[in-house]
Amino acid sequence: MNFSVTIPAYNEAKILEQNINLLLAFLKNNFSENNWEVVIAENGSADQTLTIAKKLSETNRQVRFLQIPQPGKGLVIRQAWNSSNADILIFMDADLATDLKHLPQLLENLQDGDLVIGNRLAPTSQVSRSQRRTFYSKLYNLAARQILKSRLTDCQCGFKGLKKDAWQKIQPHLESESWFFDTELLALAEHFHLKIKELPINWQEKRTKGNKSRVRIIKTGRHLIKNLWLLKKRLARLPKEC
What we know:
- The structure is a single chain.
- The protein has 242 residues and is α/β, with parallel strands linked by helices.
- The chain has helices at residues 16-30, 49-59, 73-82, 102-109, 131-148, 164-170, 181-191, 217-236; strands at 3-9, 36-42, 63-67, 88-92, 115-119, 126-128, 159-163, 196-200, 202-204.
- It has a single domain (3-236), classed as Spore Coat Polysaccharide Biosynthesis Protein SpsA, Chain A.
- It contains eight helices and nine strands.
- It is globular.
- The mean pLDDT is 93.
- InterPro entries: Glyco_trans_2-like, Nucleotide-diphossugar_trans.
């Protein structure tokens, strides 16, 4: 089966070219060149991200880019996955915080699963991250498990993949165009009884002082918690069969 790797890119000019080249080198060394593509999904950047994405697509036949004017992680991933003909749909954060060695493992786990997600909170995961971010991540995931009655450990990890048929079952019911996309995706997958597998990963926070993540933890956290309750109400009205 062929697969597509989407890289959401919002103001990523400082790291985009280097990291896409690292990803391409890994894919070329580990997979047949006819089996994959990389999609740079740029959305409303104020720096040179779009210019760099265009150049990468022009010089690499397995790279294509999408330009979506409106910012929003969920929006760009949804559009990238809807535009792909691949059998397996994956997304990774642009900073490549997840060790690339886990890509083959994700694909292997999808052989008998519908959706595979990176788990930074597993006992065997090796994670380099600030204590503050780790604390808020654990707090949010605890809230998600309690409110949504989820069994999953790490809802918001930026490393997920699923089969195209699973995506087609979920995507008509997705509403989020923001960071809540991850949680909504998994909640719908659980609601429809899809087989979800959690993959322990090595994860390293790579944002430098001049290129910190634009996620404002407190503000985003409040938004996510509010959306958890709204999602819980929506799931209660949704049939179990899609």
